Amino acid sequence: MERVAVFPLAEVLVPHQPADPAVIVSGTPTTGSVSVTGITGVEVGVWEMSSGSVRDVEAEEVFLLLAGHGVIELADGARFAIKAGDLVRLAAGTKTVWHVDEPLRKVYITGA
Q: In what residue span(s) does the (S)-ureidoglycine aminohydrolase cupin domain sit (predicted)?
């Protein structure tokens, strides 16, 4: 393993797939992710989502939104606006709906 590794996240290409029709709320969103690196028990990667809305059940995760904006809506109706530069923590098992107005790109950190 290298003693220092630099990952140019702006250059990471993230291939997209159409979202599963069973989770789409609106639009024709696509998503994609690429694992970039990790340390013992932790994965770091880049995830993207195009415009639209999808349902999800979250993993334990912290992410930094690099680009885009939207709203994360919880099952109880609480809504959290997110934009580039925001650091967000998600608790495992949280039921969400992601409403994306401008395509999102985030770097995520989660248990491997």
A: 43-108
Element (H or E) spanning 9, and its range?
Answer: none
HSE value, Cβ hemisphere, 13 Å, CA-based, for 62: 3
Instruction: Provide the 3-class DSSP secondary structure of residue 14.
Output: coil
Record the pTM.
0.93
Residue pair 44/35 in contact (Cβ under 8 Å)? The answer is yes
What architecture is domain 39-111?
A: Sandwich (2.60)
- Domain-by-domain residue ranges, the chain? 39-111
Q: And the tokens for 22?
A: 């069973």
